[in-house]
Amino acid sequence: MIKTSYQNELLFSDTLKKGSQGPDVRRIQEWLCLSALRYPQAVLTTAIDGQFGPATERALQNFQAVLKLPKTGIVTSELFARLSAPLSTAFQAKPTVSDTRKAVVQVAKAHLNQRSAEIQTDDGQNLGPWVRGYCDGFDGLPFKWCVGFVQTVLDQVASAHGRNFTSIMPQTLSCDTMALSGKDNGRLLDSALIRKKPDRIRIGDVFILRNPQDNDWFHTGIITAVLGDAIETLEGNTDLKGGSNGTAVFARVRNIQNATIDVFSIEGL
C-alpha cells in the first residue's frame, strides 16, 4: 500500500497503568471513546487528556469486562491490539472478489462495519486515529477526510491486485485536486451528462459534490449501487444530514437530479 500511516496507529510497546501520562495514554483514551460506539451499553467514554487517572482506569476496566478479561486496569500491547482492532481490521481488509468494482464496494463496507469515526472533543473536529490513518498521519480541523477515506479504499484494492491507485489519480486530500485530475485525464463525468445518462455511472466509481456557483468540489465518496436517478454511497467525514464535514463513515442514498454530482470513473484501477 501507498497509504501506510495507519500502521503508526497500531504501534504499542509499553505497559501503561494508573499514574502514566503522555501521548500513548491519549491514544488509549481515544480508543476507549471510539469503543463506546461499538459497545453502547458499556461506560467507556472518558476525557482525552493524556493523564491515566481513576476515570481512565475505570473506563479501561469496563472495556476489559466487555471482553470478559480480568479487570486489571492495565494496558498491555495485547490489550491495545484489542482496542485498536477495528482500525487494523478495516485497513488490512483484502477483497475476496476478483472484480475490481465489487472489491472497492467490499473494502469500503469493511470500514463502515468497523465504525470508522473521528473523535469528538472540545479540541475541534477531524481528530483521532481513523482520521490520521486516512490523512497520512495528520488530523485536526483542516483535514476533512472524505478524500483520504476514498483513496484508502482504492489503495487497498489496487495493492491487492499488484497495482497503484495513483495510476488513475494523484495521491491527495483535496476534492478539487482529485476532480481536476479527472477532468485532465477524461475520467470525470460531468453532472449534466450523468443526469441525462445515469447508466454511465458504475458501482465503485467515486462521486464528487460540486458547488455550481463557484465550481468548487467539496465532498466525495464511493458509489455502491446505481438505481436510476438514485445512487447509494459510502462516505467518510459525513453525518446523518449528509454534511461535508461530519463525524463518521455513513451509507447514504443521493439523488443525482437534486444535487450537482460529478463522477470519477475508476475504470482500469
Overview of the structural elements:
This protein is α+β, with helices and mostly antiparallel strands and about 270 residues long. Helices cover about 35% and strands about 20% of the residues. The longest helix has 16 residues, at about 25-40. The radius of gyration is 20 Å and the shape is elongated. It folds into 2 domains: about 5-85, PGBD-like superfamily/PGBD (Muramoyl-pentapeptide Carboxypeptidase, domain 1, Orthogonal Bundle); about 95-265, Alpha-Beta Complex (endopeptidase fold (from Nostoc punctiforme)). Helix 5 crosses helix 7. The chain contains 9 helices and 8 strands. The mean pLDDT is about 95. A hairpin with a 2-residue loop joins strand 1 and strand 2. A 6-stranded antiparallel sheet has the order 3-8-4-5-6-7. It holds the Pfam family PG_binding_1. InterPro entries: Peptidoglycan-bd-like (IPR002477), PGBD-like_sf (IPR036365), PGBDSf (IPR036366). This is Peptidoglycan-binding protein.
Strand order, largest beta sheet? 3-8-4-5-6-7
- CATH architecture term of the largest domain: Alpha-Beta Complex
Please give the number of β-strands: 8
Structural class designation? alpha+beta
What share of the residues does DSSP label as strand, in percent? 15-25%
**Radius of gyration of CA atoms, rounded to a whole number:** 20 Å
Low-confidence stretches: none
Biggest sheet overview: 6 strands, antiparallel
CATH class of the largest domain: Alpha Beta
Give the distance, in angstroms, between the N- and C-terminal Cα atoms: 14 Å
Sketch the topology as an H/E string, one letter per element: HHHHHEEHHHEHEEEEE
Question: How much helical structure, as a percent, in the residues?
Answer: 25-40%
Count of discrete alpha- or pi-helical segments spanning 4 or more residues: 9
What count of structural domains?
Answer: 2
Taken from the alpha-carbon principal axes, the silhouette is elongated
Domain Peptidoglycan binding-like: 21-83
InterPro entries: Peptidoglycan-bd-like, PGBD-like_sf, PGBDSf
Organism: Spirosoma aureum
Pfam family, one: PG_binding_1
